[in-house]
Amino acid sequence: MTEKRNIYSLIEKEAPNLHNILDPKDVSAFKELTQELRDTWTKKQIFRTETEMRFSVLNDFKYPTKAAKYWQCVREQNVYLEQLMILSFEYRKNAAKIKRLEKKLKEETDEYKKELYAIELDEKTFSKANMELTARDRMREIKVWSQLKEENDDGSFDTQNVNTHQLDSYHKIMRNKKETLTAGSSQPEVFNVIGQLESIERIKKERGLLESQKRKAISEEPNPREKS
Question: For residue range 138-151, what is the model confidence (pLDDT) as tens digits?
Answer without folding.
Answer: 999 999 999 999 99
